[in-house]
Amino acid sequence: MADLLSQLEALATGARAAIAAAPDEKGLEELRVRFLGKKGELSQVLRGMGQLPAGERPRVGEVANRVRDEVEGLLADGKRRLETKALEAELAGAPIDVTLAGRRLLPRGHRHPITRATEDISAIFARLGYEVASGPEIELDWFNFEALNLPPDHPARDMQDTFYVEESTLRAGVKPGSVLLRTHTSPVQVRSMKRLGKAPVRIICPGRVYRSDYDQTHSPMFHQVEGLCVDEGITFADLKGTLAAFARAYFGPGTRTRFRPSYFPFTEPSAEVDVSCTICGGTGRKDGKRCGTCKETGWLEVLGAGMVHPRVLENGGIDSKRHTGFAFGMGVERMAMLRYGIDDLRLYFENDLRFLSQF
C-alpha cells in the first residue's frame, strides 16, 4: 500500500509542475490524457489495487480520488489562466481603427419556401383570431390515433405508413407499438383541448410529421398546418367561410373554393377542399392550351376538412352536446408548390442553392 500511496503523491506533484508550465490549451489537453486518460498514469497506478488486501483498498481509493480531483481542478484553473492571458494579449494589441471604411457584407440568405409558406399561412389565420399551438413530434398512439377515432384496423395505422419506435428503446412499462413519430399534427388538437379544458378553442398546429413515403410528391418527413375551431353553435357554414377567406388571402382575391364529400375518421361530415387553379384562373386552359397544373379541370385539391366528430371532442374533454367544431389540415409543401409553381417535392430537401435562391 505504501508504494501505491507514494506513486499517487508523486503523480500529484508532477501534475502540479507540468500544468503550471503548460504553454497553451493543446498542451493542457495532452496533460489531461497523460494523467487522467484511460491509459494515463492514474489508471496505471490504480491497476495495482487488485493486489492489495481488502482492508487497505479504501485508503488507496480515497487518496486516488483526492489526486484525481486535484488534477482536474488544476486543469480547469490552467484553462482559465490561459484564456485570461490570451484576452489580455488581445486587448494590449493594436487598437481598432474606427475610421476605416466598412467591409461589404456577404450576400444575405433566403428563407426556405416551406418556411415562407408556413409563416404566411400562420399570419393569415392569426388575423382570423387563431393562435399557434405545438406538441411533441414523438407521440403516443392514443393521441395520434385512438383519441382521433381511428380504430386499430384503420389503414393509417399500418406499419408501412407509420414510423414506430423500436421496442428495445421504450421505457419500462410502455406497451410496444404505442410510441411513434406523429403522422399528422392532429394530436396537438386533442392536447390543446385537454389543456384548455373548455371552449372556445381556435388554434392552428404547424409542424413536421412523418410517414414512410418517398417519391416525386411524397417525403418521409413533411410539414402540415392543421386548424381547430370549437365553440357553441359552430356550423359547416363557418368552416366554408373560414377556408374561403383563407384561400383568397393566400392564393389571391379572385380565388374560388369547392367542397367535395369525403371521409375522415375524426370528422363527420368531411370534405375535400379545392381552389380554382392559380395557373389558368380556373378556366382549365392556359395560352389556348390544356392547363397541365389542373389537368384542364380548373380546380386544385389543397386540403381536407370537416366537422369534428363528437367522440374526438369528448376525448379532448369538451362537452359534445353543448359544443361543435370544425377542423382542417393542409400540407405545407403542396401549398408552396401551388403558390410558387414547384413541380418536384424533393427540391425542398436537396439544398440546391440554384433552387433556394429564387425565394
Description of the structure:
The longest helix has 35 residues, at 57-91. The mean pLDDT is 85. This protein folds into 2 domains: 2-91; 113-356, Bira Bifunctional Protein, Domain 2 (BirA Bifunctional Protein, domain 2, 2-Layer Sandwich), CATH 3.30.930. By secondary structure, it is of the alpha+beta class. Helix content is 38%, strand content 19%. The radius of gyration is 32 Å and the shape is elongated. Helix 5 (113-127) packs across helix 10 (332-340). The chain has a 7-stranded mixed beta sheet, sandwiched between helices. A two-stranded antiparallel sheet has the order 2-3. The chain is built from 11 helices and 11 strands. It has helices spanning 2-20, 25-36, 41-46, 57-91, 113-127, 141-144, 186-196, 236-251, 310-315, 332-340, 353-356, and strands at 131-132, 138-140, 179-181, 201-210, 221-231, 257-264, 267-276, 285-286, 289-290, 299-308, 324-331.
A few lines on this structure:
The chain is an alpha+beta fold and 359 residues long. The chain is built from 11 helices and 11 strands.
Number-wise, the strands total 11
CATH secondary-structure class of the largest domain: Alpha Beta
- Alpha carbon gap, first and last residue: 72 Å
Overall structural domain count:
2
At CATH's second level, what is the architecture of the largest domain? 2-Layer Sandwich
